[in-house]
Every structure is written in structure tokens, then in C-alpha cells.
Write a sequence for this structure.
């Protein structure tokens, strides 16, 4: 379908723009980052299309070696700007990073399902939601997590930024490679396992902080 990605972009983004007029400041910030993720997905689709037409690579090689680089740079750019221009708290950086990844996956999944309407199924929707949806959130979160360690340390900016992008791109590349291989289910499960591990670690850290606070109160 001609201009399918543009039609999906407009149909999703216009209601979100309207919502900005009634949301409070915090909700507006989250909505703006989700919109940035959606818009970055649209432009990545256009850029990837142009690159695919000029590069001598098959689809799998292209999605493993080129697509992750383009998409992770596009998703990370707003987070870098937000961190270095506004100096927000670590929590806000984490939230904004994940929201951009979620926004990206909303348009990507919508396009994938709409473009394959003849073969669409509930299973495909679930796989795309839990697989690609979580993958984009996790890789962008990894960049946001790394930024919290370097955006106040100029000496670490170049090396730290490169390292963070390498982690995100490598994870994305592994995911794309697995889902197109005979181990596709392992690829779809990988982000779910990573997400669960992140939640467990976060919960344990919170319990550790609470435990220290209680111990300090009991033994002043």
C-alpha cells in the first residue's frame, strides 16, 4: 500500500498532539518522548529503504548489519539532547529512554502487521508486541542508563557514548539475526527474559535500599 507508513504515522501522531493540550507537564513530557520515538521510526524506515536500494546486501544481512545502526542512533539522539541540555534526574532519563523505544515499536509493529494483513494472526501480534516491542525499549534504556554515568563527565563522553551505542546495536543485531533464523522463538523470547531480569534487579535494589534505611533507623 502506497504511503502506508505515512498514513499510520499521521493516524497515530495527530491524536497524541491533541492530547498535549490537556495533559499536565509530566504527562506532556512522556507523550512528547513517545511521539519522538514514533517519528524516529518513520524516518528510519525511509532511511533504511534508501540504503537498502543502494547497498549490495540481502534482506537478512541488511537487517543484521545496517538496520540496528540506523535505528539505535535515531532512538538515542533525543535522549542525548535531553540529558545534556536539561540535566534531568536519572529516573527521568530512564523513563524517557524506555518511552522512546516503546513509541518506536508502536509504529514499527503497526506497519509490520498492516503490511502483512493477509498473513496476520493473534500470535503475530503477540510476538511483535513482546518481542520487538520490548527489544526497542531495552536497547534505548541501555543507552539512557549509560548516559546517567557520563553526561556529567566530559572526559568519558566519547568513549562512553560509543560503548553504549555498541551494546544497543549488538543486542538489536542479535535479535534481528535470531528472529530470521531457525531459532526465531529464541529471538522473540530474548527481550522478555532480559526485561524480567531487569525488573528483578530493580526490585532487589529497592529492597536493599529499604533494608539499609530500616537498619540505619534502628541503629542510629
Amino acid at each position: 500500500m502506497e504511503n502506508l507508513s505515512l498514513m499510520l504515522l499521521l493516524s497515530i501522531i495527530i491524536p497524541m498532539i491533541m492530547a498535549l493540550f490537556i495533559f499536565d507537564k509530566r504527562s506532556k513530557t512522556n507523550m512528547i518522548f513517545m511521539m519522538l520515538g514514533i517519528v524516529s521510526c518513520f524516518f528510519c524506515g525511509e532511511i533504511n529503504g534508501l540504503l537498502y536500494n543502494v547497498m549490495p546486501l540481502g534482506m537478512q544481512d541488511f537487517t543484521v548489519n545496517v538496520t540496528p545502526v540506523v535505528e539505535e542512533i535515531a532512538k538515542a539522539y533525543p535522549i542525548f539532547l535531553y540529558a545534556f541540555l536539561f540535566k534531568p534526574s536519572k529516573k527521568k532519563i530512564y523513563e524517557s529512554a524506555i518511552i522512546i523505544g516503546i513509541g518506536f515499536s508502536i509504529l514499527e509493529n503497526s506497519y509490520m502487521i498492516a503490511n502483512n494483513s493477509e498473513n496476520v494472526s493473534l500470535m503475530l501480534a503477540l510476538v511483535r508486541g513482546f518481542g520487538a516491542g520490548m527489544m526497542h525499549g531495552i536497547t534505548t534504556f541501555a543507552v539512557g542508563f549509560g548516559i546517567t554515568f557520563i553526561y556529567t563527565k566530559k572526559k568519558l563522553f566519547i568513549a562512553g557514548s560509543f560503548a553504549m551505542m555498541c551494546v544497543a546495536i549488538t543486542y538489536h543485531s542479535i535479535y534481528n539475526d535470531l528472529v530470521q533464523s531457525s531459532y526465531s522463538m529464541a529471538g522473540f523470547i530474548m527481550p522478555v527474559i532480559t526485561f524480567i531480569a531487569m525488573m528483578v534487579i530493580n526490585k532487589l535494589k529497592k529492597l536493599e535500599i529499604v533494608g539499609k534505611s530500616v537498619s540505619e533507623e534502628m541503629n542510629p
The radius of gyration is 19 Å.
